[in-house]
Amino acid sequence: MEFDVTLAKQPSLFRRLGAMLYDSVLLLGILMLATALTAIPYEIMTGTKVYDESLPLTLMRLYLLAVAALFYVYFWTRGGQTLGMRAWRFRVISDDGTNLRLGRAFSRFGWSIISLLPAGLGFWWSLIDRDRLTWHDRKSHSRLVMLEKAGKTAA
């Protein structure tokens, strides 16, 4: 599905945060499972806990970051919506109106981490941006677009 990005309405910051909250619940479960699949075997094999050693802890953090990246990239490239985005009726697309490809989805994830780091300043930016875009929207050449309610027909 292709969108005319000049006519597409952007979701509010409130909607973005709502979707992030929904997604964080699902992602937390996935991260807990990913942790159990690696930390428990590590503890059994070595007799030490991952968080007792600095290198395994650093590797574990990188592993969990990769799991989170794969979570978002998977959903963004397969229909443009995470569970939270589906519930709040918006999706992510490229600036040209097409679905995100793998490289652009990874770029969006990386830039979204940067948007979150300074107290979410990259997200707050959407309140003053003329197009209501966040830092990671701009840097990854992607954007969120609102979807019609189910059953509603366009005139």
Describe the structure concisely.
It contains 6 helices and 2 strands, in the order αααβαααβ.
Task: Write the topology of this structure.
Layout: H1 13-46, H2 54-77, H3 83-87, E1 90-94, H4 102-116, H5 121-124, H6 135-140, E2 142-146
Antiparallel strand pairs: 1-2
Helix pairs in contact: 1-2, 2-4
Detailed description of the structure:
The chain has 155 residues and is mainly alpha-helical. The chain has a domain at 13-28 and 67-146. Helix content is 57%, strand content 6%. Strands 1-2 form a two-stranded antiparallel ribbon. Helix 1 packs across helix 2. It is elongated and about 60 Å long. The mean pLDDT is 90.
Would you tell me the structural class of the helices and strands? Answer: mainly alpha
Low-confidence stretches: none
* SSE order: HHHEHHHE
Strand content: 5-15%
Largest sheet: 2 strands, antiparallel
**Number of H- or I-type helical stretches:** 6
Query: Which oligomerization state do the chains in this entry correspond to?
Result: single chain
Count the strands? 2
- Work out the radius of gyration: 18 Å
**Strands side by side in the biggest sheet:** 1-2
> What level of helicity do the residues show?
55-70%
Mean pLDDT across every amino acid position: 90
Which shape, going by the Cα principal axes?
elongated
Distance between the termini: 19 Å
Features:
two-stranded antiparallel ribbon; 6 helices; 155 residues; elongated; mainly alpha; single chain
